[in-house]
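ligand=G3I
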Amino acid sequence: VAIPLRELFKDYFLIGAAVTPQQTDLGTAHGQALKTHYASLTAENVMKPDALQRVKGQFTWDNADRIVQFAKNNNMKVRGHTLTWHSQSPDWMFYDENGDLHTPEVAMKQLEEHITTVVSRYKGDVYAWDVVNEAMFDWDPNGQIIYREDSPWYKIMGPAYIDSAFVYARRADPDAKLFYNDYNSIFSWKRNKIYDLVKRLKDNGIPIDGIGLQGHWSVNTTESDLRTTLNLFRELGVELHITELDIPVYASNDEPGSTEYNSTFSFRQKVAYSMIFNVLLDYSDIITNVTFWGIGDDHTWLDKPGRKAFPFLLDEELKPKPVYFEVQKLVQKR
Ligand code: G3I
């Protein structure tokens, strides 16, 4: 019999899921699965800048509030995602009415207002924020390009927005944990840049509490990439959250898509998820939250027509898959 995930992991870390507001309803299967399994919620989309402040000065809270209220009612924490990002942010944050980039002063002021308003509203309710999302350049083995230079934030003022975002967030809620969040963070070309960034922020007295490692990993993810990264980040003395965990079933992008879950997929996922959770449990002194980027296989950003990703431990009906029991076994053995 399946032990609820939040029970299973309670001695190690909070286990969470990314959600839509519609899913946070106890009258639905999703709401019931959330209540049973998860101790932490993240809004998949509705706390992003374009969702909260599409029009300058006009904040829309309904969707985000719904998730926060559901979490409160059901004894869950909320991770806030995200305050500062180059994507899913309204154009007015970056461009004036002529389509030219704002001056650093104007953009900085708008960033401060956004962060202060959002973080203040959820003070005490959102326990951790992804203050800055995906600011580092994703591929550059020689390490020449450090920051994501196509970000309008970067184009306007270089990396200064990163430092300021953390300062504004801390001011608005001194008790919230503040995170830098990024993907591909377990690969050498990216993890070293993230390490350097966080080291620089800490050395300069910028308030940062942790690193979010987006867990968009794969059935080919290696144990050594994971352990090397966790060892490296441990040196920074920060908390770690695995923020967006999903493991699609395919071994490569070239593999033909399928809409049926089969025994090959199941086997691969058992191997991958067992390895991953074994490692995460080994680092549970520094990993304090592990959040799936969805609830069950019925809803995931990874699905394409004719090519379902089946990336979670719960199936399309939100029932535990064989890989769920594999993970359960390994936790119980510890
Ligand atoms: O809400 C509109 C809807 O009105 C419209 O009809 C429809 C047509 O395309 O689009 C809907 O918006 C979509 C939105 O998700 C809500 O479903 C956007 O097109 C779509 O681009 C958006 O995708 C989200 C993506 O971020 C955007 O970058 C995914 O749901 C979300 O899972 C994904 O999450 C990101 C994390 O925030 C950061 N890390 C990577 C991760 C995966 O890309």
